[in-house]
Fold each of these.
Amino acid sequence: MLGDRLNLKSRGESAAKARPTRSAPRPFNRLETYFAWQAETFKDSFRRLRQTPLTSTLTVLVIAIAFTLPMSFHALVKNARQASAGLEATSQISLFLKPDLSDETGRKVAERLKKHPRIAEAGLITKEAGLRELQTHSGFGDALAALDFNPLPAVVSIKPKDSLASPTAMEELLAELRKLPEADFAQFDTEWLMKLRAMLTIADRGVAVFSVLLGFGVVFIVGNTIRLELQNRREEIAVAKLLGATHWFIRRPFLYAGFWYAFLGACLAWLFANLLLLLLRGPATQLAELYGSPYRLSFLSLEETELLLGGSVVLGIAGAWAVVLYHLRRLDPE
């Protein structure tokens, strides 16, 4: 009996020596486990949204509308700026020569101005051509035909270079042209361009203020939705705290829920804004063709899309974080 016990003991010791020892988990395994748990919580938060389709859909739609409004206005203002830049590039200066100067003198002035470093093109409108145009488009053809002389002066039509898009540069060129000895006066309608720029600047700032206000609205929408979910899961959170769960462990799924609400709302807002631009593209193209412009309505760029998605995610997580941080302190188990 004693020999058998000694043999069993020696076998146990040999088996213990032969059994591989369990090593401590390596840092890589811990990191892999952490990311796997994060991914599972991420997917589980999306599954919870699908369990309440009506509530989730309404929340996402409200967020989408809140993002669609400023993005649409921003896109429209951006397109208006691009279109007005094209109009500025095609603006003309009319240099009216003194009435007693002949067309030949006007041609010499036009040839001289073609060599000007700030002028792209210069062409002469003769006195006869100007009178014919006035008779055709003014509605006073019979009265003008009764005149025995031509009261119109020769006009040099000037197209500035594209680099002269600013009103200051245009005013400098106008002042230089007015000093020419052959010039009677020079005309360029810069006032409407200045008014248009002022209105676009006001619109830009309005869109910025509007975006900030609606951004706070998105934070409140996400926060209120997360607050209701916290109330519905009050007992679950209390049990988790009794079992030793940390605030970060409890907070994580709600932060992911805020991410999903904001991200889906931003994707829907991007779709709505581009659909609006698509509906306006046809009329905008027709209007540009009437003005002889090749401009076409542009959609949201990649940078604007990234800003929309990134900003919405930040707002969604911020709203969820603020609400969870506040309510977790009030949901302590009794």
Note: DSSP finds eleven helices and four strands in the chain.
Amino acid sequence: MSTASSLSFDNTENAFAYKSDRELKKARFLFSTMKYPLLVRWATRLTPWLLRTGLPVKGIIRNTIFEQFVGGETLGETAGVAKKLSEYKVQVILDYGVEGGQKDEAAFEQSMEKFKEVIQYASTQPNIPFMSVKVTGFARYGLLEKLDSSVANAKGSLMKRYGAALESLNSDEKQEWQNVQHRMQGICLLAAEKGIGVLVDAEETWIQDPVDVMTILMMEKFNQSKPVVYNTVQLYRHNRLNFLKDSLDAAELRGFILGVKLVRGAYMEKERERAKELDYTSPIQPDKSATDQDFDRAIHFCIDHLEKIAVIIATHNENSCRYVVERMQEKNLPANHSHIHFSQLYGMSDPVTFNLAKAGYLVSKYLPFGPIRDVIPYLMRRAQENTTVTGQTSRELVLIKRELQRRRQEGGPT
């Protein structure tokens, strides 16, 4: 097993072996474009409008940003990507990339069936151990918001506050919430039967509490002997390290394995703006260093409790990944420990993903799929993210250029 000091994320030959020269040059063009925030801002506004007008832009989108960040429009189209990744010992987390907007029970039922279809498909593939679900895909946003508000206003532990919050619902809303729980249970039951992990995405703070509670209840039911359900902990929130510790207490009390995906976070600007507008204390950390500190503390905590925690470290941050490796080596843990998994988004941070895989660590790409029109919100977020994450785009671009230069000098793949 490689040591943390010898594990290099600068090895571009490993990082981009799965990409042809043509694909690398496309990536170079995209990341070069994303260096300019004004250009990205205009593109993210214009692209959805252009699609709505019916102008023939789908081909351009498919051959550029879609090809870079998405596995395909259908489950079948993801097969080629998954197969190529498997050749380099990189696994896949399937993500049906269609975002919210559904408002009726029929649409929610349809979303549930789609998630089940993803599970069925993943179970037939050798390197797809996980899929992700977004509760807002099969639950009404307003219902989650009402429940969360009632939970926040009650007293006691999260579970006690949740119990009190249920009483705030009228009879129709109680039935509606039972339907949501039934969908979630159906998804998790099928996943348990098929041996596929379910990663429950994080939501905005004002709807997160009922998602947390439902996920904990699913873990209690399905994580008795092995991790099936994973909750997402966003460490850019200043109270989530304590939430992680409380979740372990619940797991020990209720006798289940805590599944957790650690991320930094995805709604920072929206959260801060809402807190300012409604005049409450922002739930977001004061600065990036505080987020980084809590993220590393969460890593330390999880690795110290691996007998009861299965953790997915979902980050592009090289320092955090090195820290995980260091902690594993300090504890003499094997690189392929079943309770430690790394993950990065498809199309980003290949030097992290493929060098970890080469060194024997369990690592996956988060692979979204869906019709181009429906995954546009996801693609626009990726474009915006690459302009706001300090140094991320520059780092991607430098390494892509370095690999293209290496291939020119040494005669690499075409």
Note: Strands lie at 91-96, 130-133, 197-200, 229-234, 258-263, 309-314, 340-345, 363-369.
Amino acid sequence: MFKLDAIHLREIRMQLAQPFETSFGVTRERRVLLVELECDGLQAWGECVAGEHPYFCEESIDTAWLVMEQELAPRLLEAELEGGGSCVKALRQVRGNRMAKAALENAVWDLEAQREGKPLYELLGGSRREIPCGVSIGIQPSVDELLRTIERELEAGYQRIKLKCKPGWDREIFAAVRQRWPKIMLSCDANSAYRMRDIDQIASWDEFGMLMVEQPLWEDDFYFHSMLQRRMETAICLDESIRNRRDALAAIEMDSCRILNIKVGRVGGFSEAIAVHNAAAERGVPVWCGGMLETGIGRAHNIALSSLANFSLPGDVSASRRYWAEDIITPEVTVSPQGTIQVPGGVGSGVQVRRDRVESLTVRRHTLRAGARVTA
């Protein structure tokens, strides 16, 4: 058992290496909420993946900051912790706010790994030392630019190409990509941009031989996705709809999807991510790890999670340099020419946070200490 000495909240701002467009809009700069835990001379970091606006889900960086400062962090400071898994009970009284909870819980898992002197991936139950990775390509200014971007990513070794799509940016690009590369592993992600009036069109995408169509309909839906899946040979993958193990079981039972995307922030932390992974594995449903434009801190946590056995499909855990001219960790995440990432074997997450760079990017901070709150 142990208790935390302090929790530091920071907001940093980082420019993306290039704009990233989805059906939600265009992101050029990321406001990122980082948490740092202190315990018995050790420091551990977590990252909140909530966006600048509540578009992906109900949370945003500002709601996450508020609920961490006023509710979650004080509860965690008061708790007697056995490890990362005990955070669920400590934070249970606060409903929802899964991305805020995940940032804190994941940092506690990292702290537990450090206390036990073992790699984070091993503590989570992972076994693979190398993971396959794909790449998510945002909506581009033109089809020609999209094809050039795909060519660069294939040359970099990525094993799966995922295309962000929306009405008006779908069939034309799928056809162009398939004409150029008939056999690459291809998928698309709609981020809930379509409705039932589009079901015939979506079902026709079978002709493009994609690995999966990700979250085409409502972000909270199983029923209509089940109707669509019955119309398609291509697997539907659910992302936003899966908030926990119970959602995963419901989606699998209803045949709403045949693949699951697990985002550790979306489901509330490593504990629930492992539960979703296990539920899917027991039912023969493959999973992969999704990305949320993380810095190296969140990226390192995604890599550790992806080492679990049922993460059998290439995820969105790409190289640091795809997103940032300069990351906040060392070593930065790199991808081999074969499209794989080595799982760090050092104690904890296996990466070091560049505190000097974090300081230079910090625009807001707050510290909570055991027994008292102190604003730094």
Note: The chain has a mean pLDDT of 96.
